[in-house]
């Protein structure tokens, strides 16, 4: 019988394993068939038994998962005293295909009758996923079998200056970990040591965040870590306790095919009644997300719409909650392509700020929001709208400006139709570009970062509608503006507006400071672009957006010819 032992959650001491070789070789009578183990049998007193050796390798876990001869999965449960409480064998259907950089221990009997332990550097992701889906992984606290209420898929691109937030958010998620109701699966990447040193002034030490695996990407099944038992401050935690599902190597996290593979593969591997996707990366509104080394978005709104559409086709299910944890993505043009393949979208029309050293790192307090959902006091586990709102509640204790919205995806069609009607009313009434600009100058604008002349020209839809209604003396224009505002209020089903005073923050390059003011009091949840495009390429890109094809909004942009001259408010 040949078995592969999965050492989840903790590092297995190979030296300790080697010390047991003599014991193994002296145990010719060691039993190794599953049916030999019976509930109540005390393995602590059976030093000669092979299962005792495997138990040592398993550390303090309450369960051992073993792939037997590549065909069966043996699941052996232990109580605190080391007694076998239950055994189960399941036929393994997944095809074995080795991937790299994951430790595997193979325990087998030689032709001479001796037992030996062999350390491998490969492990089939199919085997790991099968093992995860069949049993408890972390000290018996997590049971993954069966369809859960919610699967959370966290995508964090740390190949850049977001790395501290990306990594800390993963560590923070281990404070809750996957539960009996919730699966948490993560794919994160890291920057190279050179980039880390350039960004932050020092390299990670070898012990930091599971050692030096910079410029790599991994998938994790997030389990509850050792944070609460650590007598030191929580921020000292530097080790990921969760099992690695797959080592992906040096992949391009700005490649849309990588995101698609992650979503489809893990939604199928960890089925649930509902799905939440947390997409954490840089964003630039209608220009897209996933900025490359030249700060150019690699995934457009249309790409994101195609990704979510393909996920729906492959899984038969919408993404219930799409969390766009990116700057400026709370924009009609950016979210519209996902209207038919998501139920709710969380996004911000503004810059998102977050500290890597906060109790809840990152702009959105994901872990605290999941704790609210897990408590299920208002049936959040069965209601995606309430679940989405929980993330806003959790983020409400921020000490700096932030605005977040929960958008009802199925209302985005109506929002586009109302925008089109306003455009048509403006054109029919002969409203001038100067009149539009005067209304825009009074409107809540976004990207409160750097100086006013660096604005994108993103304006609040609700505030713009109010100002057009108030300033343009034409009944049909007033009516269309009012209807757009009313439609927006139905589309944005929850909103968080946090104010702050003006503060000074060091710029990314460390050469100066930028001024940030949390003035979002006139934010109504979504922005729209009113700034003219800087190049022919940008103009053609905007014209090709599905939202613009529906509304013809680019005609208003051209009519206004707005120079983004922002007046003091």
Q: Concise description?
A:
This protein is of the alpha+beta class and 569 residues long.
Question: Which terms would index this structure?
Answer:
single chain; 569 residues; alpha+beta; Rossmann fold; 3 domains; six-stranded antiparallel β-sheet; 21 strands; disordered C terminus
Give the SSE map.
Elements: E1 3-5, H1 14-19, H2 21-25, H3 50-57, E2 63-68, E3 72-78, E4 84-91, E5 98-109, E6 115-124, H4 125-134, E7 148-156, H5 163-173, E8 182-189, H6 193-200, E9 217-221, E10 244-249, H7 256-269, E11 272-280, E12 289-291, E13 297-299, H8 301-315, E14 319-325, H9 332-335, E15 342-347, H10 366-375, H11 384-395, E16 402-408, H12 412-429, H13 433-441, E17 458-460, H14 461-471, H15 475-491, E18 492-498, E19 500-506, E20 513-518, E21 527-529, H16 536-544, H17 546-551, H18 554-560
Parallel strand pairs: 7-8, 7-11, 11-14, 14-15
Antiparallel strand pairs: 1-2, 1-5, 2-3, 3-4, 5-6, 8-9, 9-10, 12-13, 15-16, 16-18, 17-21, 19-20
């Amino acid at each position: 019988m040949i078995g592969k032992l999965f050492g989840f959650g903790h590092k297995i001491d190979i030296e300790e394993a080697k010390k047991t070789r003599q014991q193994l070789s002296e145990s010719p009578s060691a039993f190794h068939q599953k049916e030999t183990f019976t509930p109540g049998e005390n393995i602590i007193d059976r030093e000669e038994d092979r299962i005792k050796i495997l138990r040592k390798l398993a550390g303090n876990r309450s369960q051992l998962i073993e792939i037997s001869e590549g065909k069966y999965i043996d699941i052996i449960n232990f109580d605190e005293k080391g007694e076998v409480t239950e055994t189960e064998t399941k036929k393994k259907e997944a095809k074995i295909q080795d991937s790299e950089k994951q430790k595997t221990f193979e325990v087998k009997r030689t032709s001479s009758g001796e037992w030996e332990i062999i350390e491998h550097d490969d492990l089939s992701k199919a085997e790991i996923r099968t093992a995860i889906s069949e049993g408890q992984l972390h000290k018996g606290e997590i049971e993954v079998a069966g369809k859960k209420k919610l699967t959370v898929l966290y995508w964090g691109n740390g190949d850049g200056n977001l790395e501290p937030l990306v990594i800390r958010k993963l560590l923070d998620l281990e404070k809750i970990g996957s539960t009996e109701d919730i699966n948490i699966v993560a794919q994160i990447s890291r920057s190279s040591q050179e980039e880390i040193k350039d960004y932050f002034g020092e390299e990670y030490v070898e012990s930091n965040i599971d050692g030096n695996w910079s410029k790599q990407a991994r998938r994790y099944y997030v389990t509850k870590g050792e944070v609460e038992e650590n007598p030191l401050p929580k921020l000292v935690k530097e080790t990921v306790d969760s099992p690695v599902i797959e080592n992906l190597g040096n992949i391009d996290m700005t490649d849309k095919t990588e995101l698609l593979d992650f979503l489809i593969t893990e939604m199928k591997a960890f089925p649930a009644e509902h799905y939440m996707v947390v997409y954490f990366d840089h964003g630039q509104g209608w220009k897209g997300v996933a900025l490359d080394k030249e700060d150019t978005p690699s995934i457009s709104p249309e790409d994101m719409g195609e990704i979510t559409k393909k996920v729906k086709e492959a899984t038969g299910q919408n993404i219930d909650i799409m969390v766009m944890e990116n700057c400026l993505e709370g924009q009609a043009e950016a979210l519209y392509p996902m209207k038919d393949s998501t139920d709710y979208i969380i996004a911000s029309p503004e810059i998102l700020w977050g500290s890597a050293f906060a109790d809840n790192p990152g702009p959105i307090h994901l872990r605290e929001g999941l704790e609210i959902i897990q408590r299920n006091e208002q049936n959040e586990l069965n209601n995606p709208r309430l679940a989405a709102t929980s993330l806003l509640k959790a983020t409400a204790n921020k000490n700096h400006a932030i605005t977040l919205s929960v958008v009802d995806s199925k209302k985005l069609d109506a929002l586009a139709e109302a925008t089109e009607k306003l455009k048509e009313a403006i054109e029919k009434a002969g409203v001038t570009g100067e009149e539009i600009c005067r209304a825009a100058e009074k409107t809540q604008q976004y990207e409160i970062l750097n100086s006013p002349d660096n604005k994108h020209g993103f304006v609040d839809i609700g505030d713009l509608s109010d100002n057009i209604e108030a300033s343009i003396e034409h009944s049909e224009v007033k009516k269309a503006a009012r209807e757009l505002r009313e439609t927006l209020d139905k589309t944005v089903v929850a909103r968080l507006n946090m104010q702050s005073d003006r503060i000074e923050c060091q710029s990314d390059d460390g050469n100066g400071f930028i001024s940030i003011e949390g003035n979002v009091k006139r934010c109504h949840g979504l922005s729209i672009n009113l700034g003219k495009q800087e190049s022919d390429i940008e103009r053609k890109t905007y014209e090709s957006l599905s939202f613009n094809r529906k509304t013809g909004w680019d005609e208003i942009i051209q009519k206004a010819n707005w120079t983004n001259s922002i007046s003091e408010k």
